[in-house]
Each structure stands twice: as C-alpha cells, then as structure tokens.
From TrEMBL:
Domain spans labelled HTH arsR-type: 5-99
Pfam family, one: HTH_20
Annotated protein name in UniProt: Helix-turn-helix transcriptional regulator
InterPro entries xref list: ArsR-like_HTH, HTH_ArsR_DNA-bd_dom, HTH_Metal-responsive_Reg, WH-like_DNA-bd_sf, WH_DNA-bd_sf
GO BP, sorted A to Z: response to cadmium ion; response to lead ion
Entries under Gene3D superfamilies matching the protein: Winged helix-like DNA-binding domain superfamily/Winged helix DNA-binding domain
PROSITE patterns: HTH_ARSR_2
GO molecular function: cadmium ion sensor activity; DNA binding; DNA-binding transcription factor activity; lead ion binding
Amino acid sequence: MTTELERGEPDIARLASAFADPRRVRVLTALADGRALPAGRLAEEAGTAASTISNHLAVLLDHGLVAVEQQGRHRYYRLANGEVEGVLEALAALAPRTPITSLREHTRAAALRAARTCYHHLAGRAGVDLFQQFISAGWITGGDGRHHPEATRDRLSAPGKGTHYRLAPDGAAALAAWQIPAGLLSTERPLRYCVDWTEQAHHLAGPLGTAITTRLFDLGWIVRGTVPRSVRITERGHDGLAELTSVGKSS
C-alpha cells in the first residue's frame, strides 16, 4: 500500500487539463454558488448539447472536481468541495479578459460585478459596499477596506493577510441582535477577508461572512440571480441594509 510519503509531486498538469475546455469551466462556474444542478441545466449553461454534456461531467468527476448524487430518477451535480470554488476565483484573477461581444456577455459580467457569492460569502460591489458600511459604522476596525498592493502582499481574488481586522464590541452587539450566532462574534479573533477581483477592495470572508450572507438570504434581502453565482439585492434588502448600518452609525 502506497503511503503519503511515497507519493510524488502533485500532478497539477493533469488537474489543469480539466479546466482547458471552456464548456467544463462554464459547468464549474454554474455550480460555484453551492447549488446542485441536473445535467440538462448544466448543458444549457455550458452551451452544449445534452447528448455531450455527460462526457464533460465524466471528466470533471474523474478529476474530483464535482460530485454527483441521485434523487429519484435524476442525478444532481455539485462542486466536490469549497477548494474548487477557490481555484475558479484564483484563475479568474489570473486569466486574461475576453472581449465582450454580445448583450448576454455584458449582462453576465455586469451581474457578477454587482453582486455574487465567493466561498459562500457576499462579493462584488455589494460585498465591498457592505464591508465599507460596517467599517464606517464602527463595527469593524483595523483597516479601511481598500486594497493597498504597495503595502501588503495581498493578491486579488485571494484571502487577505496583510490587514488585521477585528469586530468591535458595538458590531458584535448589533450582529447578535441581528441573529448572527454568538460563537462567530469574538472581538479578539482577527476577521477573515478577501481581496475582491472585480472591485479591487476588501469584502468580509470566513465563517462570519458566510453567516451574514446566509442571514441575508433567509431574510429575502438578497436572492439568487439568473447568472450563475450572481445575487440580487431586493427592494426590502436595500431598505433593510440602510437601516441596519444606520443604527450602527448612530449608536
């Protein structure tokens, strides 16, 4: 039996080959918001025929990038783990931008920049704005929410390490009243954040970022968009977020 020490270097090239086909990348992107989708829906997202999507799904399964589950007569696919979403974010930061040549492509790009999920927390302009609101309200301290490449080694589309954010007591109290679990509201532990690749600024990450995003979904303040990974702030959400942070500013 081969032990871990007897194994060679990670076969990055083999894994990377699964990302070499744009149709498979579109499948992974469609699954990156955490949903499980059937093959027919993934064929639509990939822009390929239903008769050929099974070949692409087989490649992704073989490379350990997706998992499949049976529900009745249907098979549903989801990302194998959160690390796959992280790879997609990292590749998005490194990859050259393709020219936008259609209204559909413009709509998709605009939706992802406006608001999307990243590791199950809120990203895009909405995530950056929310983080800035928390800082302005005095709920989060330790930084200004902006990306300073000259001062830190933080990279775009990656977890940040150069800024040491903390949750302030007022922020912990306000979020507790907003039904965020108390175990996530330590004022001693540093907060995790990501450098948003579209906005080039910080958005809240980690367990607290995920819990806040889950709460936003539960309240109906944000909803899933038609573009994979995109979300949309509802009218109730705009009003609720404005009221939430105004309480922090006035306290």
